[in-house]
Amino acid sequence: MTTIVRVIVLAITVVFSTVSAQDFQGVATYKTQRQLDIKMDSTQMDSDMQKQMIEMMKKQFQKTFLLHFNKEESTYKQDEELDQPTVGMGGNIQIVSIGGGGGSDVLYKNTKEQRYADQVDTYGKIFLVKDDIETLDWKLESESKFIGEYQCYKATYTKMVEKPRVRFNSDEDAEEEEESEPEMEERTVTAWYTPQIPVNNGPSNYQGLPGLILEVHDGELTIICSKIVLNPKDKVEIKEPEKGKVVDQATYEEIMEKKAKEMMERYRPKKGERNDGNSFSITIGG
Fold first, then answer.
1. What residue numbers bound the domain in which 242 lies?
2. Total of domains in the chain
3. Long-range contact pairs involving 179-186 (C-beta distance under 8 Å, separation at least 24)
4. DSSP state of 272
5. Which of 195, 106, 209 is nearest to 151 (CA)?
6. How many CA atoms lie less than 13 Å away from 26 in the CB half-sphere?
7. Which residues of the chain are modeled with pLDDT < 70?
8. Which residues are CB-contacts of 5 (< 8 A; sequence separation ≥ 6)?
9. What gap in Å lies between CA 158 and CA 57, rounded to an integer?
10. What is the pLDDT of residues 240-270, one digit of tens each?
């Protein structure tokens, strides 16, 4: 069945590629959200405060992105006009989100040359991460469905990832928290792509399928396309970002890990320090 689906998809792709041999471009709007399964100690905060905190944390991951693309290049950037600003809770509660994702970030991909340039504002410093696009070992599945007017096909691949962590650093557990090797688990990533839009691209770091990716389910992260404009009247301009300190992906991850540890130390109560018992920090791993 999978082989039959593969043949059908490739046939459709050839047809649409032939039809769209001229300049082909578009803008796709994506909505992202992340599920949070958090259990909090009722002795540290009441139920109303817990609900308020969880809702605020969810909103931090509910964002809108725009993918500007042609047959070979794309830029992926947060649409600040459609996203509401996040309101902090104040008081003695600190929420630290490890990772980029700010409004000034932009991810450029060149699928023909198999490379990317990711401009990321991290802890107030701009980095320009340049590296090769990762080859994802997609498996074309037999399932299909419509997303809006586009017929989409399912594809999956597996990868090893760290188990998601939400750290609660209170006075009581600060001394017990020690560095340890992260636990790993196998995760299946599911994507839905449409050969009707003949580009092997998609949102964020997802690409490599015979059609634009319109939906992604990657663990707790969900990305869904809500709007597509093909060949708009105003020509789509795709510019590779140039600002920031140039590093490769491995170097950037090392810097991120070091900064994350520094942030943990900053918000961790000092040994012997006492407070009212309600001051703690939450660190979300990206």
1. 2-284
2. 1
3. 184/160, 185/160, 185/161, 186/158, 186/159, 186/160
4. T
5. 195
6. 17
7. 1-22, 36-46, 50-60, 82-103, 164-180, 267-286
8. 140, 141, 142, 144, 153
9. 27
10. 999 999 999 999 999 998 988 887 777 666 6
